[in-house]
Structure formats: C-alpha cells, structure tokens
Structure prediction request, 734 residues.
Amino acid sequence: MDAKTRDDLLGLFQSKLNEAMHFYLETCTRCGVCTEACHVHASMGQVRYIAAYRHEIIRRLYKKHFKARGKVWPSVGESKELTEMALDELYEAAYSCTGCRRCMMYCPFGIDTQMLMSIAKLLLIGANAEPETLTMLADMSIEKGKSIDIFKEGFINGLKRLEDEVVAKWRQEAGEAVIPVDVEGADLLYVALAGAHSIIPAAAIFNAAGEKWTLSFFEAVNFGAFVGDPTRTKLILDRIVNEALRLKVKEVCICECGTAFRVMKQLSGKHPFTVSSITDVHARYLKEGRIRLDKTKFNVPITYHDPCQIARNGGVIDAPRYILKQLTDDFRELAPEPAYNWCCGGGGGLVALGEDTLDFRMKSSRVKVDQVRGTGATILTTACENCHTQLSNLRDHYKMEVDVTFLSSMVADALVPA
Amino acid sequence: MSDDIKISKTFDLKGLACPMPVVKVSKGIKDVEVGDVIEAISTDPGSLTDIPAWARTTGNEVIKTEQDDKVIRFYIKRNA
Amino acid sequence: METISYIVLVPMVYLAAAIFIIGTTVRLIKIFKAPKHPTTLQIFPAKKPAWLWALHDTFLFPTVRRHKPVLWVFLIVFHICLLLLIIGHLELFGEFEVLQIIPHEIFLGKGLVGLLTAISLLYFLFRRFRSPVRDLSVPEDYYLLILLFLIVLFGSQMDWARNWYYYETMSVEDYRTYLGGLITFEPYLPESVTESGHAFMLVLHVFLANLFLIFFPFSQVMHSFLSLPMNKLRRG
Prediction:
C-alpha cells in the first residue's frame, strides 16, 4: 500500500471518529463477557468471531495511527499498521458481522460493534475492496432517484398487473384506486420493496382499513447503509424524504425491511411526517378496530423472529405481539426476552450478497435453527425481507419443518370485514 | 416473444426476494459476450425501475421491455 | 538509596500527578469535543428515566451479573474495595469530617480490603491466561493487572503490618506529614518514612503507583470516566 493510499484511508478513518466512536475505541477492557453474544461465534466457535476480537482489529489501527502510544510503545496494545493485510482482516471482520448489536446486551460499557465495523466498511470502500454488488445496488438506487421520471410510466403500468391479486384479498369499493401512486395530500406514504410480495398484502390491508395511502416510487431498502457508505446512504434516503415532502404526507410507513426502517426512523432527521414500520401500522389498525382478523385461519403454533434492526435496534417489539395475539392462541416466543433474540444471520448485507455468502450464512446461524426448533412452532413469521430470505435458506438447508412467512402476509390472509 | 432479437441467455427472476433480481442479472450478464443480449423475466413491478436504473449505472442497455398480464420481459444488451 | 527514595517519593510523584491530571483532562476534553453521533445508539426496549438506568448499568454491571456471575462477584468486590482504598488514601491527606460520619480507623477493614483487592486482581489476571479471554487480551491488559496487583500488595503490606503485626513505626501521622508536604509544595520526608524497615515498601508502592498514573490517561483504564456516557448512549 503506497503512502498516498494509506493517508487517504486514514482520512476516512478520521472522518468516523466522533464522540461515540472515541468511547468505543478507548474503553474496551477485553473482559470477554461478549464471548457468548455473537451468533457466529456461538455457531462456529472461532475466537475471531467474538465481538471484542472484531473490535480489536479496528482498535489496533486506531492505536497505531491515532494515538501517541502507537509510536512511543506500539507493542503494549499490539497496535498495527494499516496495510493490505490489515484490509483483508477488516473485510473478514466486517462482513462476518451482521450488525445485529446483540453483543451490546453483554458489554458492560455498551460498545457498539456495528459502529466499529462501519469504520472497516468505509475503509474497504476507500480501498475499492468492498463487495461490489452492494455498491452496484446502492448506485442503482441513487440512479432511480435521479431519473425516476423516465421510469415512472412503466412502473405504474406494472402495478396494474397486481390489482387483481390485491382485490382477491380485499374487495375494494368501486372507483377507489387499488394501488394509489403519486397522490398528493395522502395521509400515508408506503415505501415497499421491488417484489410484488411486499406490495400486494400491504395494499389489501391499507384498503381494508380505509387508509388514504399512496405507494412510493422507490424501494425502501438502503444498500448504502449495508455497504457502510454515509454519502450513498444519505442520497438513497433523501429520495424518499423528498417524495414524502412533495406529497405532503403525514406518515411514512416502511415495509418489512429492517435496515430501511432503522435508517429512515433514526437517520432521516426531523420532518413534518412521522416514520413507522408496517407492523406498527397494522397493530394500530387492529387497536382502532379498522381491520379485524380471523383467528381460526392459522391453527398451528406460531413463533415470531424479531428482526434485529426493527426490535432491539428499532424499538418495535410490542406491535408484532399484539398482532399475533389476534392471529393465534398459540404464540411461542423464540427468546425469553426479545432483546436477546439471535440474529437470523443474514443482516449487514450478507443476504444481499446472495450465494457468495450462503455457505457462511448457513454455518454461522446454527444457533438460530436450534432456537426455532426449540419452540415447536410450525409457522415462523417475521417482519423483514432479509430475515425472511435467510430464514427460508436455513429452513431448506437444515430441513426445518416450518413455514417461513411475512407477518403482513398473514394479516392480509386473515382479513375479515371489521 | 421478440423474434427479431437473438437471446444468448434467459434469467427467471419471478418471485425472487429483494434484491436478487438485479444481483442475478448483474452477475449473469458477465457470462455472455459484450454485444450479446440476455432476457430477464420478472413478475415484480419494482424491477421496472430497478433494471433500467441498474443498466444506466453499469453502462448496459435495456433494448426492449414487454409486459403482458403475467410477466415482464426485459431484453438487455451487454455493453460493458 | 536515599536519592532514589527521594526521586520516587517527591519529583516523580509530581510528574505522575501532572501527567495523570493534565493527560486525563486533555484527552477527555478532546473526546467530548468530537461531534456527537447523529442518530440514537440505544438498545430497546427503552426504560425510563434513561439516565437512572445508565447509572445502574455503570455501577452495578448488570450485563456481567447476568452472563458471568463469578466475574461479577469479583468485579463488584474489586470496585467497592477500590473505592474504600481511595477513601483511605484521601484520609492520609487529612481529616475529612464527611467521611467520619461513620467513625472508623483510617483504612477500613483491618487490612481485609487490600487482601480482597489483591485476590480479585489475581482472579482477573489468571482468567486472562485461559482461552477465550487470553485470545482477546493484549499486553496492556496484563501489564495493568500486574502493576495494580503489585501496587496493592506493597500498599497493603504497610496496612497489614500495622493491623496484623502491630508494626508502629510508620503511623498515619507520618504519612500525613509526607503527603501534606507534597500537596502544599513543601515536600518533607519524615525519617520514619524513609529510614524504617518498611520504607522500601512505601518506595515501591509509590513508584508503581506513579507508573500507573502515568499510563492511566492513555490506557483502557479511561473506562472509569467513559463508562457512564457510554452506558447513557446505550440507554438512549
């Protein structure tokens, strides 16, 4: 690595050193309490998957390049120069971490591994060593924001083909739009994913609840956040913020996508609209009596996987349980406390990397499979696209006897007239 | 089906979870020669914005998009 | 020998105290002046009031209690003893009426506090010899524990001597004379402190403590100041 590259990368490192990051880099006592926290370590056993070990990979570089100690007495903290080899280590640490933050439930100080890994991810981008798929997807999202006018027409036509399926779930009053798009003054902007499965059930439920809603042109997921690129993250986020402001909606509702929800809820700043997850919105409809569910629809034990970015990191914990109480009398918790739920093993961009990470995702999530099996449930439902894909992969790989479903689909399938 | 386009490879993207349609196309197009055309079949309305936006950022070209009641067909020429 | 004692007991103490105070202050100011993280870093479900729970997390180590109960016992013992030892040392500077609300001898616990501290430190040290903590540890962690252990050992020896062997030569008054001189910048070393049979223990104790103070601002021991704000971040 030449001096110029190193300086550029250290500049990126410096840009991440805010107050919280200093806390996390200065404080670890390597007490090892976090050893059992990571699902990868729990499933595979290698020391390099312990949270503190991951931290130390970043911390060694910090000690070398940002602390006088690195020059005066480098060996005392095993400080380490930023080299090509260090980049390999950073990749291994950052892309085996799903950013689930379960280790924060163990650390006596609350060190945020996801934050520390975000340094690794940014350095990898700077060195052009990040997974190119994620950058490609992020650029695609940004391009969509720039040239939406060119694609609008086709998208609206594409939605027409879904209308029959929406109406099959919930018969609409004549004259009302089945999937409204670009409606100024709507109450709620629904931001879905590219797939029809993220639009059809949601549309049926909005219509059943009599919501004044409109569908976003954009997909909710933020690939910029997966790859850890603050600039791209912001550009992708701004597309939706601008659309919400233009349509003057009161609420932005994010589909079942953990990253999308957390980024929108926590990073978008103050706006005249509120941000909610679709799970929140469905629970609200039920509480207000705007929709009603048939409890006999699924007569089997059901368990719910709390998506890390929505529950532990996003605070949506009670809403799914409220919904599930209307769906079944046999709801079974996966973890004694939702905050201790194991990550599905697919977060942090791993699922988006598809087959490249499949082998690792299966090996690193054995504890998740044991947890699901322990409940005896035959439906495993969740509220995140990433989790859903990963859990479905796990079901196939480990031959689990469960149906993996989206909670919103179950709500749509159980709709009965209120 | 477009008879006048010679298709080198077809990708079935129906019902794939986010973001697999774009990932599959993006990886798959590298299997054909520059100048060749691939066909991608999807059922998701999101792909109507995803695929063209992806093509623009990667320098490839969506030469034709067809929609019928059931599916959406993209014909994408590898330029890069 | 006399010169060495003098250097350790007077100029080096000033140097160590200066590095400790200035180093810690400057480093803390630098850290707290860095921009705040733009989003919340909290973990849910949230409990209110967050600051109270942050105090709870900082001083009672609930996550350790839950996941490593044995370590928790030693951690609590160690930190309580540390507090008592700090109080004990403060009282070597002079009488504090606040601290004498519950009347006690200088250095509580008849030497037991030091003993418990030393045992806890040995536990912390030995658990680092075993995987996985061994794989996580860096030299700094061992050095600090060994250093602290030796500081406590030599320090406690003086306490034990008074409590257990009725060794009267070095009294609280002698220490007060020495430390009082230091803080008024009129250093004076009473003969009992430098000449008695246990003087080498004091010199070693102070020497190692000086090293600890010098290293403090640059080491993981900064967790003493950063734990609370970090726990506040986690609590939201």
Residues 47-58 of chain B form the longest helix (12 residues). Chain B has a mean pLDDT of 90.
